[in-house]
Amino acid sequence: MKAQRFTAVFFILIISVLCLVSAPAARRVLTYSDTNFQGVLGDRGQGSRFDLALAKEFPGLAFWMGVYGGVNRTLGIRYIPDQEVGVTKLEDGQLSYGIDRLGDGRLDGYVANTVALKEKLEARGVPLIYVQVPFKTGMEGGLERGAADYSDSNCDRLISGLTAGGVEVLDLRREMDGRMSADEMFFRTDHHWRPEAALMAAGILGGRLHNDFGLCYDEAAFDPGTYDTETYRNYYLGALGKKTGATYAGTDDFTLLTPQNSPDFRVTWRRDGKTFSRRGKFGEALVDRSIISRGDLYHRVSYDAYMNGRGAIATVVNEDSGSRGSILLVGDSYSWCMVPFLAMNYGRVTAVDMRDFTDVSLWEYLEKNSFDCVVIAYNPASLEGRNFSFFSRK
Question: Are residues 197 and 333 in the same domain?
C-alpha cells in the first residue's frame, strides 16, 4: 500500500512539474498560425498547425514522445488515434492509415472532369494519361487493425470510370507489384514512397509515354545503376512516426540518389506566392541537401529535399537535352519526387499541385502553354475535389 501511495504521489508530482514547465508554451501552441507550413499529411488544416506548434514549442518533445511510443509498443498497441488520421501498425511494422470510401457522386465528378480535360486536349492533339500511384495499405492488402481502408476500392472504381470514358490509364499498383517489397517501396514511418520507388515509377511512366505516344525514352535516365547512392542511417522520422514517437516503430534510412553524369538544369518554382529559381547539376538544382540534415528527428523533413518539397508549380528545363519533348505532371508529393528523374529524360517537365495552384484554372494555363503530353498522377489519399477541379479557379 505504501509503495502504491508513493507511486501515485510521485506521478502527480511529475505531472505537476510538467504542467508548470509547459504552461508558457501552452498558449503559443493553441494559437499557433504558421500558414506556410505544409502539414504532416500535406494540408494546411488546424491539425497540421497544431502538430508543428507542439514540435516547436513543447519542452522535451523527443523525450515525452519516446515515452509515449515506448509504452504503446510495449503494450502491443496497434492502432493510435489522432486528430488528423489514426495511425495503424501493420503486421510487418509499417505505419499507415485508413482511407474512407468515396461516394459514387464524388467519384463520378472526378471522372467527368478528367474525361472533359482529355477531350479538350485531344482536340489540340495532346494526349493525356492518368497514373495511379500505389499506397502502402493497398500494397499490404488493407489494414489489419484500426480504421477500415478503401484505398484500393476507390482507385479501382475511379480507373473503371476513366477507362470507360476513354482515358489512358497507367496503374502503378499493378506495374510495381512484385518488383519491390513494401519495405523497399515505402518509408516505415511515413506515408510517402522512397526515392528508389519514385525512380522506378518514373522509368515505368517514361516507357509507357514512349510506347504509346512516341516520346523520348533514355533507359540510362531511369537505371538505378547510373545513380550514386548516399544513405543516411536511421536518419528520418516520417509524418506517421512523428505522431507515434520514434520508439514506436523505429526510424528510417534516407537515401539520396544523384546521377553519375548529370546535365545542367534550370529550375523555377512558385510556392506561397513567391517565385524561386536555381541552376546547376542535379545535386545542385534539384536537391536541397540542407533540408536533409536540417533539424532533429521531429523537425527534419528530408523527403522535401527533392524539388524542395512541393509548391503550386515548378518547371525543370534540361539544358543538355536538345528537343526531347515536354510533359505537364499534375500530381501530389508522390509525383513531385518523380520530377527530378523525369527531368533526366525530357527537355522540360512542369509539375502542378492543384492544392496550391490558384491563380488560374489548369485549363486556362494549358491554353497558354504547350506540352507534348499531360500526366495526372495521384496516390489514393489525393482523390479529392480540388485535385480534379481542372476548369475552375479556387
Answer: yes
Judge if 235 and 377 occupy the same domain. Answer: yes
Separation of alpha carbons 175 and 182, rounded Å: 14
Q: Are residues 88 and 110 in the same domain?
A: no
Give the separation between CA 209 and CA 300, rounded to whole angstroms: 35
Residue 375 lies in a domain: yes
Domain end call among 65, 96, 127: 96
What pTM was estimated for this model as a whole? 0.86
Q: Note whether 88 and 123 are same-domain residues.
A: no
- Whether 172 contacts 215, CB under 8 Å: no
- Give the E-state strand segments of the chain in sequence order: 79-80, 87-89, 95-96, 128-132, 168-171, 227-236, 252-259, 265-271, 274-280, 313-318, 326-331, 348-352, 373-378
- If one counts every other C-beta atom within 10 angstroms of the C-beta of residue 361, the result is 17
Looking at the structure of the chain, the number of domains it has is 2
Residue 394 lies in a domain: no
DSSP state of 101: P
Rounded-to-integer distance, Cα 65 and Cα 69, Å: 6
Burial of 47 per CB tally in 10 Å (0-12, 13-18, 19+): middle
Residue with cell 482511407: 99
Task: For 192-248, give the secondary structure using H, E and C.
Answer: CECHHHHHHHHHHHHHHHHHHHCCCCCHHHHCHHHEEEEEEEEEECCHHHHHHCHHH
Q: Residue 186's closest CA among 134, 227, 229?
A: 134
Range in 230-234, 287-291, 325-329, 374-378 with the lowest mean pLDDT? 287-291
Residue 366 shares a structural domain with residue 240: yes
pLDDT in tens, 174-196: 999 999 988 999 999 999 999 99
292-338 pLDDT, tens digit each: 888 788 888 899 999 877 789 999 999 986 678 999 999 999 999 99
Cα separation, 357 vs 172, in Å, equals: 25
Q: Which residue has the higher pLDDT, 314 or 13?
A: 314
Please say which residue of 37, 67, 96 terminates a domain: 96
Between the alpha carbon of residue 360 and those of residues 122, 326, 357, 390, the distances in Å are 21, 21, 7, 10
What pLDDT is stored for residue 46 in this prediction? 33
223 is in which domain, residue-wise?
104-388
Mean pLDDT calculated for residue range 106-113:
97
**Total count of residues recorded for the chain:** 394
Paired with 129 in beta bridges are 168, 375
